[in-house]
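Structural prep section.
Before we set up the soaks we want a predicted structure of the protein with zinc ion in place, mainly to decide which crystallisation condition to try first. Input record follows.
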Amino acid sequence: MCLFCKIVNKEIPSNIILEDDNFIAFHDINPKAPVHILAIPKVHVDSFNEVSGEMMSNMTDFIQKIAQEVKIEESGYRVITNIGDNGGQEVKHLHFHVLGGAKLKWGHF
Ligand code: 5GP
Ligand code: ZN
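Run finished without errors. Recording the tokens verbatim:
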């Protein structure tokens, strides 16, 4: 079972912010911004390459709820999903980084 499936199953503890039947959001263990949350589907999906439009639609609603919950929807934030080797994906379970709480830098390789 992959690392994030274990987090879904609560076999590995995480700091959960929001959870519903299909998704879970928790704090990244190594934050790259003052707010750094990971949003994942409970079912295992390898990456954005495999996600359905229906799941993405629900994921959008879930991420919007996260932004409201941690009060970054007005100040702004960034949503990123890394895909494959060139994308820098380390955990092969679809996840969206939700980053905020400060003015974020942009534009480096
Ligand atoms: P990726 O590089 O795959 O896009 O992002 C994986 C993210 O998962 C990284 O930001 C990393 O800090 C985070 N991460 C890795 N292992 C754990 C863990 O055990 N718990 C939590 N909360 N985050 C983790
Ligand atoms: Zn998984």
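Observations: Strands lie at 16-19, 23-27, 35-41, 77-80, 96-100.
Flagged for discussion at group meeting.
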